[in-house]
Amino acid sequence: MKVIAIVQARMSSTRLPAKVLLDLYGKPIILRMLERLIKSKRCNNIIIATTINPIDNIISDLCIDSGLEFYRGHPTDLLDRHYHCAKKYKADLILKIPSDCPLIDPSLVDECIELIQSNNYDYASNIHSHNFPDGQDVEAFSMDALEYSYKKANKEYQREHTTPYIYENKSLFKTIEMQSPYEEKSFYKYRLTLDYIEDYWLIRKVYNSFNGNVFTLKDIIKLLDSNNYIRNINSLHHSKAWYNNKNILN
Description:
Structural class: alpha/beta
Number of helices: 10
Strand content: 15-25%
Low-confidence stretches: 245-250
CATH class: Alpha Beta
Number of strands: 9
CATH topology: Spore Coat Polysaccharide Biosynthesis Protein SpsA, Chain A
């Protein structure tokens, strides 16, 4: 079974333009994210899925210069972009990971892959139970489920966010949510996603705290629990999340 991770990225993010190129410990933040993803033991390939807009030439150029594989597709129809990217790379199982998750823990990626494969699920994720901090987002789905939704989904938000048709139609698809080992925690106070400049300041502080060494979600939580200053850098955005606004697009 061929498992690929598709990282969607664009330059024209409305809240923090060009965020994927912000510096993180001497490299563009998207490259630091890929350094973490590549540590997944179950993912065969990682593809950057950007758009055909000329403004995103800089992303494809970065991929070429860095020896990374990429695909350029529809600017706003992410379902279309993911489907044609997955088809091009002959994927059997697809991971959808937004580029606003530079602190993603690769072990969560492996857990999600293992979960969906364990009982032949069509879809698995950690984004609906809210038992993981925002910014650790992983979704996995079969090529069959992606193709079916590509053909059937006709609502704008279903096209814009790739997977709503799958998880909204549980009579058609076998879905499951990942269980967090931290269910007792209030994860609204740990915001690890990259949408605003304050998020970037926190992410940079976290990354620099580990001096570029490998660190896990457990390490991040331990750091934030012991350092209120870092944890509260982006506190004005703690109540904001992707699922509160269907107009968010990465």
